[in-house]
Amino acid sequence: MPSLVEMRGITRTYVMGDNLVHALRGVDLTIEHGSSIAIMGTSGSGKSTMMNIMGCLDQPTKGNYLLNGRDVARLSRAQLAEVRGRMIGFVFQSFNLLSRTSALENVEMPLMYQGLPAAVRHRRAMEALRKVGLADREDHHPNQLSGGQQQRVAIARALVTDAPVIMADEPTGNLDTTTSYEVMTILQGLVKEGKTVILVTHEQDIAAYAKRVITLRDGVIVSDKAQEPLDAAAAALAKPPGAGGEERAP
Ligand code: ADP
Ligand code: MG
After folding, report:
1. pTM of the full predicted structure?
2. Which residue's CA is minimally distant from atom 13 of ligand 1?
3. Tell me, what's the pLDDT at 239?
4. Would you say 229 and 208 are in contact if contact means Cβ atoms under 8 Å apart?
5. What distance in angstroms lies between residue 200's CA and the mean position of ligand 2's atoms?
């Protein structure tokens, strides 16, 4: 099997009026299937730019990118969308759920584009909700769910197509500590099932749950280390005294 990600000399330059912003300045990176990766770095270091290119939401200015052996650096928008739909589920800091839509319908959304019969969509969306512990919340709208529950709906939506890769940009950024551990427990469970989880975070204690930590600074990789990950399920159970497990308002 080819590597999942094979990036060589990736640069991304944004044009802002008369200025050029060099968000990525020559990134070489290989990621194998089944990996658990945290991408770290201070604000503005290029984390989101890298994840967007990795996830075929954006394309590099220069360089080569093979995703699962396929050259995706120069695909058309339609081809990129097709690759994304098949390969990648996304989770964002702000959940990005449709507000007037139930949890179940939010999770079904990615399946709408696949032309599946309604009964199959429903069954698969319910399975995905069950997997994140929210089968009893299928009818709830996002504003009837806590932040942690909304993020679990977003993870179910990322899972429902059975894409082999989950990419998450600051998935715990709007959640309190205990709820963050619950989200990390779900993501670690996906790695155990053989999925690849790539997450962006600027928090050291979230990166501690990944098996490999890549650090960016000013658009280049300055460190790339394997580590023994902490167990998020244990951390989620060890709630500090008085902590109710409710997150602050986002
Ligand atoms: P991070 O996610 O690590 O905070 P980003 O990848 O969002 O960093 O940004 C890297 C650099 O690129 C920053 O200097 C940012 O201001 C710039 N940048 C990001 N997106 C754009 C854009 N769409 N247009 C112009 N500059 C951008
Ligand atoms: Mg970012």
Report:
1. 0.92
2. 44
3. 65
4. yes
5. 8
